[in-house]
Amino acid sequence: MKKGKLIVFSAPSGSGKTTIVRHLLAQADLNLEFSISAATREARGEEVNGKDYYFMSLDQFKQHIKNEDFVEWEEVYRDNFYGTLKSEVERIWAKGKNVIFDIDVAGGLRIKSKFPEETLAVFVKPPSVDELKRRLKERSTESEEKINMRIAKAHVELATAPQFDVIIKNYDLEVALDEAYQLVKNFINEGKSH
Questions:
Q1: Inside any domain, residue 194
Q2: Is residue 1 part of a domain?
Q3: I want to staple 124 with a disulfide (CB 3.0 to 4.6 A). Which of 17, 80, 92, 117 is the partner?
Q4: What is the rounded average pLDDT of the residues 133-152?
């Protein structure tokens, strides 16, 4: 199978990585398709199985781990697993497309270590932790406690930024979107450009 490229976007919650990934998916010339993660949690709101996530039971997920079906996986909270199935990457590559991931920092770095040549790992950096907190509060989808958990996690995640190939500072969304597009386009067209 011809291997495509793997484009990883990782960042703390509220950095704007999902907005950037959606923008890139809309650029036809990049030939990207979104990697759907597997998760052991229930669907939320409008989420659709097979489009937003592959929802599965804890037992199913653990069986996949045993079978070594994942490119990467982790237990984010107790009994709350997320992972990327090898079959998902293969499905997208079989279509002749490049894979784009909107994934947490640990997962992003694992993909990079498994496919060092094919992966561009991008870290999206928020202007500050204070700004991150403001954005998360603005969403008003989560409790204060949950926001504080995300902020604590953000400090840890920000420390991993130097391990990524590139850091995009999302201080101004338009600038960040343009920078992300150029980076991905160059990587797809030229292979590795360090």
A1: no
A2: no
A3: 17
A4: 86
